[in-house]
Structure formats: C-alpha cells, structure tokens
Write a structure and sequence with these properties.
By secondary structure, the protein is α+β, with helices and mostly antiparallel strands. The chain has two domains: about 50 residues, no CATH class; about 80 residues, Orthogonal Bundle (Arc Repressor Mutant, subunit A), CATH 1.10.10. It is about 30% helix and about 15% strand. It is built from five helices and four strands; from the N terminus they run ββααβααβα. Strand 1 and strand 2 form a beta hairpin. Helix 3 crosses helix 4. The relative contact order is 0.15.
Length: about 160
Amino acid sequence: MTSPIGDLRLVARTVGEQPALTAVEFAPFPAADGRPRGERADDDPLLRRCVEQLEAYFARELTVFDLPLAPAGSAFQQQVWGALQGIGYGETASYGEVAQRIGRTAAASRAVGLANGSNPIPVIIPCHRVIGANGSLTGYAGGLERKQVLLDLERPALF
C-alpha cells in the first residue's frame, strides 16, 4: 500500500486456524531475506482490513488498531511489543519506561531498544512512540524521517 511514509508491504499468515498480520515492511522491500511469502493477495479480507485501518490512521481518523497480530519473536520481545501497544496514540515513552512496564529496571533499556528495533509490525505495534530518555528520537528501523512523520501525525493539530 502507498502511505505518507512510503510504500508498505503487509504480510499475513494463518496462525492456528485464524489469519493474523505478521509483518509491516517498509520500502525498499528485501527481495529474498529467507522468510517465506506467498503470492500477492490484494483481495485477502485481513489485508484489506489492515489497509483500511492504516489509511484511517494516516488520515487521523483512527487511533487504535483492531487487527489480529502474530509477530514472531522471543518471549522477551513479545513482552516488549505488548508494552508498546500500551503506549497511547500521541504519547511517547522512553526505553527505560518501557523496561519498567515489563517489570525490569532501567538497566534493561538497551535490551528493550533491541527488541523495539526488531518489531516486525511497525506502526500498528507503535515502536515509533519510544524515544530517548532526554526526548531525542534515537533509532528507528524505518529511519528517523519516518519516525518523525509518525510522531508529527499523532500530535494534536494546533488551531
């Protein structure tokens, strides 16, 4: 799909008996990174629903996604990604704050940062909302430019 942060590739698969979103990828897309992918399926109901929700998000009409997600990762990564989903639209948290949300000390900030950076479902699992303790943008797998666009999008409009 086309978006304000560039083209996105949405990946879903059946997990158990239910389809679930497993990845949101930024262009340029890797041709062969070892992960199996099926044929392009623009008519897939889950992917269509995902596109609709992302379009509403980018139009500032949606603040909470309602999609079945199945990000692949370790138990620690799953904990971090779960905590990211608790950071509300328009809010930010530091890596240390995310560590505390999962019951760790701020010393786990670096590990939280690594898990944050390996989030396979960016935007929907809002890793862009995690910033440095001093308010700096710090890294983002999609690039700092995209992170800034997403944070700006979520800021309330000033009238």
